[in-house]
Amino acid sequence: MAFLKSFLFLFFSLLALSSEARNATAEKPDTTSNKLVQNSCRHAQYPTLCIHTLSSVACSAKTPHDVALAAVSVSLHRANNVSAFASSLVGLRTGNKKERSALNDCIEQLSDSADQLARTVSELRHLRSVTFEGQMNNAETWVSAALTNEDTCLDGFHGVDGAVKKAVRKKIVNVARVTSNALYLINRLASTRAHIP
User: Fold this and answer.
1) In terms of Cα–Cα distance, which of 162, 51, 174, 182 is closest to 101?
2) Helices (H), 42-162
3) Least buried of 9, 57, 82, 179, by fewest C-beta within 10 Å?
4) Mind listing the pLDDT tens digit for each residue in 116-162?
């Protein structure tokens, strides 16, 4: 009986140690990836937002290229969501003529922004060392243009008061900040040329 107790104690102790070792091993890549995201976002214009928006991809990010691609993808996703939201407001036919005009212009700007971000995602997915400089120039130009379009959308509501402006403004400010961070991460990638095939 004493032998059985000793055996079971030893068995469960080894099982617990094995489990702890597996957990420690599993945590290392996540910690490394989280550090990569944190280091990448440290000097972004909105570092807390940068880390927050990229936290869901942190575990799969292995290189600055992965981080930049994820940042632009997040920006594209949010731009599409805001565009869909703004389009739904047009269907409600609320607000005055000036407000509706600003909203329609904003939807067009957001569509252009999303197109430029989509082109950037495609470019980043196909980076090659031999064409790196030209591709990064394209990416920087397109994300800068996307950010300008988002800012132009906000400017269109200048002098407009109402529920539509309030509803759209908060979402546009968020996507513009995410896009600004994405531009920073692209500029950072352009200066490092890290891990490009």
Assistant:
1) 162
2) 47-54, 64-92, 97-125, 132-155
3) 9
4) 999 999 999 999 988 999 999 999 999 999 999 999 998 888 888 77
Question: Please, are residues 22 and 153 in contact by the beta-carbon 8 Å criterion?
Answer: no
Neighbours of 85 (CB within 10 A): 15
- In whole angstroms, how far apart are CA 196 and each of 63, 153, 154, 171? 9, 35, 36, 34
Structure tokens at 159: 């002098």
How far is 27 from 59, CA to CA, in rounded Å? Answer: 10
Closest CA to 59 of 34, 23, 28: 34
Q: Sign of the C-alpha dihedral, residues 147, 153, 154, 158?
A: positive
Question: What is the pTM for the complete model shown?
Answer: 0.79
| 16-to-10, 13, 19, 26 alpha-carbon distances in Å | 10, 5, 5, 15
